[in-house]
Amino acid sequence: MTLTETAHLPRRPGSASSPHKLAAERAIFAPQEIVGVELALTTVHVQQQNQMEFEYPQNGRWIAKTVDPNSITIRPAGSTINVRWKQQTTMVGLALPQSVLRMATPGMATADQLGLEFVCGAKDEEISTLAVLLAKEGERGYPLGELYPEALTMALVLALVKRYGNVRGGRFTDVGGLAGSRMHRVLQYIDAHLADKLSLHQLAQVANVSPFHFSRRFRQATGVSVHQFVLEKRLERARALLKNPSLSLIEVAYASGFSNPSHLSLHFVRRFGCPPGAYRKKIFE
User: Fold this and answer.
1) What are the pLDDT digits (tens) for 228-280?
2) Can you spell out the DSSP letters for 181-222?
3) CA 146 – CA 142 distance, rounded (Å)
4) Which of 56, 208, 59 is nearest to 118 (CA)?
5) Looking at the predicted structure, is the pLDDT value of residue 82 above 50?
6) Are 105 and 53 in contact (CB under 8 A)?
7) Are strands 89-96 and 24-29 parallel, antiparallel or unpaired?
């Protein structure tokens, strides 16, 4: 892969076309020199594995900069890439459309421009961890649907904007919390659609707030993230369905919102300490 291809990362097979989920990809980058290439989208790269030396042109000569593992480099949309490196390296790369960046500032009443500053080789454990988790989730094909990658995206974009954001001409407004009636509608919707592929965007629409505010206010109201709440509900649904001997484990998994029995078993063991089959056996002993 070349560095400029990050701005055109494809969505992996099995991923939905959610506008609130970033496509992150871990890739091997061959030695290359890029000069005078303008970026259409903001890109973020996380250095993986080995320490690398990158060179940048300055006053007619190339200046070297050493970048450590888990360091991040941000290149804003519209900026020009001038960089080279002389050995193969592995990085996690992702591109950020303007619409995704705006998720982190939904209370902004007016804004002439929202972007990120240029950053080269900054040590940032939180952002690098979130980017790597997002890439790993994509490699697995998003087995639990949209909620987890959307939550990762929301956390990643918020951290980027808070630390490296560049907002001009804007002011913020507070939209308030989730009123009791809104929360009631959301909980009813979750219960009625546990077997479906729920997304943060869907639930935010039910509550009639932005995905960012919904995610934050939901945690304030329940003490857990949307993803954790839905996962717990699905596990409770699966445990109840296991008491019906006419249902196979595959049927229990699908009816509870899991992509297959293996994913159900993984989370069931973590929550209840035994596989679904063993739990069912205990019930009918």
Assistant:
1) 999 999 999 999 999 999 999 999 999 999 989 999 999 999 999 999 999 99
2) HHHHHHHHHHHHTTTS---HHHHHHHHTS-HHHHHHHHHHHH
3) 7
4) 56
5) yes
6) no
7) antiparallel
